[in-house]
């Protein structure tokens, strides 16, 4: 059964038929594993006497205590450092505690400010180095989130590393939204061309590159406006954060991880027992940025689809790895995506 047929089958069963659910269901059906809806239309399977449900990135496959730990980024960071996993120091403040937060941040500059509860890359302010920029970023995040996370800024190239049952199965290098000049077209034209390519290739997990006030601010820092023509090969950044929901590119990097980086990633699962499916945001030393690998964030509800559909590089069968971990004795069959 191909992916389109799987989504139609899920819909007929009354199961939410989003992309991640379809990838998991397709793999289950190929192994003759029974799937069913629950009262919330989530994809469910029986595993070790438990009912396991999946709803896009969210699931209950992880231990409840492990999930709670990962929801609190400051708690997870402290746990990792306790187990000698390098992670940046951070702290969470309420929106009214800007002065207290500045006192914490000043001796640690530069810092990052972002919501304490995630937000798909939105309201992430990087490399803040002075009081004015700090206060402005803190106020913006405080107006949009219940808690404000202030964290040491760590250089490096961001990667998402996926682990299933304690083993690394896939990794992507996440590149912030950008365009590369050709010496002929304006930035606005290049963005439009890239978004057309997004539509033509029908990559289901990559979003359009935005042109908005945030984009213009980021471009202005580089001396660009959307009407200017960058030189051939000149890269113009449209966003600072690398989230694909804000136009970033995911490039498969599974084979690029060093033995040290794989060992560090797998050590996280030993530091927070009960994480059977987890995505790590890791900052790795690449292209002259950073000096050592560090774990930036632990996500107990990772998206699988980005590994199946990278913008650049080899697709990785993350759903297959998940089902093999859950049902190691099930016969995997040939599938058509």
TrEMBL record:
GO BP: SOS response
Alphabetical keyword list: ATP-binding, Ligase, Nucleotide-binding
Stored InterPro entries: ATP-grasp, ATP_grasp_subdomain_1
Gene Ontology cellular component terms for the protein in this record: cytoplasm
Residue span(s) of domain ATP-grasp: 77-332
Listed GO MF terms: ATP binding; metal ion binding; ribosomal S6-glutamic acid ligase activity
Keyword ATP-binding in annotation: yes
Protein's UniProt name: D-alanine-D-alanine ligase-like ATP-grasp enzyme
Organism for this UniProt entry: Nesterenkonia xinjiangensis
Lineage: Bacteria, Bacillati, Actinomycetota, Actinomycetes, Micrococcales
């Amino acid at each position: 059964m191909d992916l389109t047929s799987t989504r139609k089958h899920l819909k007929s069963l009354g199961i939410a038929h989003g992309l991640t659910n379809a990838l998991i269901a397709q793999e289950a059906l190929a192994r003759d594993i029974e799937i069913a809806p629950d009262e919330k239309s989530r994809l469910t399977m029986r595993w070790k006497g438990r009912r396991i449900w999946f709803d896009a990135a969210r699931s209950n496959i992880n231990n409840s205590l492990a999930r709670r730990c990962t929801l609190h980024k400051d708690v997870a960071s402290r746990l990792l450092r306790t187990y000698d996993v390098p992670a940046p120091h951070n702290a969470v403040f309420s929106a009214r505690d800007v002065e207290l937060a500045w006192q914490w941040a000043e001796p640690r500059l530069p810092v990052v400010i972002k919501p304490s509860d995630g937000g798909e890359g939105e309201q992430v302010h990087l490399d803040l180095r002075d009081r004015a920029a700090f206060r402005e970023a803190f106020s913006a995040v405080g107006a949009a989130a219940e808690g404000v996370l202030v964290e040491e800024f760590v250089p490096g190239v961001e990667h998402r590393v996926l682990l299933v049952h304690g083993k690394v199965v896939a990794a992507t290098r996440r590149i912030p939204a950008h365009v590369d000049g050709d010496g002929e077209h304006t930035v606005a034209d290049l963005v439009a061309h890239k978004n057309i390519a997004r539509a033509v290739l029908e990559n289901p997990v990559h979003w359009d590159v935005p042109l908005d006030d945030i984009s213009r601010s980021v471009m202005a820092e580089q001396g660009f406006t959307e009407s200017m023509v960058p030189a051939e090969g000149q890269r113009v950044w449209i966003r600072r954060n690398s989230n694909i929901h804000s136009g970033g590119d995911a490039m498969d990097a599974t084979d690029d991880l060093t033995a040290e980086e794989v060992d560090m990633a797998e050590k996280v699962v030993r530091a927070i027992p009960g994480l059977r499916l987890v995505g790590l945001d890791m900052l790795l030393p690449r292209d002259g940025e950073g000096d050592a690998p560090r774990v930036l964030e632990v996500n107990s509800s990772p998206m699988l689809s980005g590994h199946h559909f990278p913008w650049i590089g080899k697709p990785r069968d993350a759903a297959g790895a998940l089902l093999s971990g859950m049902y190691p004795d099930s016969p995997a069959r040939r599938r058509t995506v």
